[in-house]
Design brief:
Strand content: 25-35%
Largest sheet: 3 strands, antiparallel
Radius of gyration: 14 Å
Number of domains: 1
Structural class: mainly beta
Strand order of the largest sheet: 2-1-5
Shape: globular
Mean pLDDT: 82
Distance between the termini: 31 Å
Length: about 80
Amino acid sequence: MILKPNQRENILPLPVVLISTISKDGIMNAAPWSNFTPILRPLDEVLLASWLKRDTLENIRHTKEFVVNIPRVGMEDAV
């Protein structure tokens, strides 16, 4: 099976998490993120992927810190 890049959802659903960061100027940011993959369990290392420039990535590069917030079941509409 050959999939186009925008058809990856046909393989498996990706989790949606909220990534919280703070900019170098102290501005708080929380962004929904679906390109999130645990690398080691239990969440010792994670992979965030983006092909667009985002504030979240810029904040992580500057501060080297972020928080992964995993919404509980039933919060789909809120996220």
